[in-house]
């Protein structure tokens, strides 16, 4: 790869973090793709970023496709490299932006999984029964599941909540979303009940000195994303939906809101989507559910 490629990727990462406010996970993903391109350029014996052109980018993307990469992967890699070359142009490292014309297959959009209301009720009843034992972990786990469904927030947003992020008087939380954008999200009475029960025993986790996180692990520190994923996946594994993580609860919350007549833009605001088009996928889910219900129930379907 070009001799200064590692230094360039570090500067690019700093730009994504400090200027664009991208999350750690997004920056990490972009850097993996830029490194992949760097390895390809090394094979092609390209010595300088100034020698990067559209033909090389297309050849690299074609080689990626030969690894049986999904369209979504190709689309992501293309987006990462377009961002990288645009940055390189702005920094004066190249005279023209070869990534501007780089095209990739559109990522196929699969309808997201949605958990049936009856299945959710079974899980909520199960979690409430466990919480009645008074075990702090059981009380916390009930809150985790209730809050994910009630707010439709991302698992990283839930784990990032602090005590002061919660407004108990108005039943709202302030979450920090993608791009370091804060939004206000309401929650209902069942989640409020679970929250009150958890706050009453939070000290039982023996919070570490100065720990401000709302959700704590057994060591008194902030509960991690992986722990939440394992909890939710385990609870959903026995449902007809099958093994799914916390994002399924986000999909489910959005779909159930639209099924209940919620305004599409209100759901967009709730989920923190930058584009209304992202939220519209849930209208397709609702239509599919309506069509399936009609097919099963109408005598002349």
What does this structure look like?
Helix content is about 55%, strand content about 5%. With about 300 residues, the protein is mainly alpha-helical. It has 2 domains: about 5-100, DNA polymerase, domain 1, CATH 1.10.150; about 115-295, hpI Integrase, Chain A. Strands 1-2-3 form a 3-stranded antiparallel sheet. Strand 1 and strand 2 (about 170-175) form a beta hairpin. Helix 5 (about 115-130) runs antiparallel to helix 6. The chain starts with a helix and ends with a helix. The mean pLDDT is about 85.
Sum up the structure in keywords:
301 residues, mainly alpha, DNA polymerase, domain 1, hpI Integrase, Chain A, 2 domains, three-stranded antiparallel beta sheet, 56% helix, 4% strand, globular
CATH topology label of the largest domain: hpI Integrase, Chain A
Relevant CATH superfamily of the largest domain: Intergrase catalytic core
Helix/strand order, N-terminal first:
HHHHHHHEEEHHHHHH
Structural class designation: mainly alpha
What is the domain total for the residues? 2
How many individual helices?
Answer: 13
Q: How many runs of DSSP E, i.e. beta strands?
A: 3
What does the secondary structure layout of this molecule look like, with pairings?
Blueprint lengths: L4 H14 L5 H20 L10 H12 L5 H20 L26 H15 L4 H16 L3 H5 L6 E2 L4 E5 L5 E5 L2 H13 L23 H12 L9 H14 L4 H8 L4 H4 L1 H17 L4
Antiparallel strand pairs: 1-2, 2-3
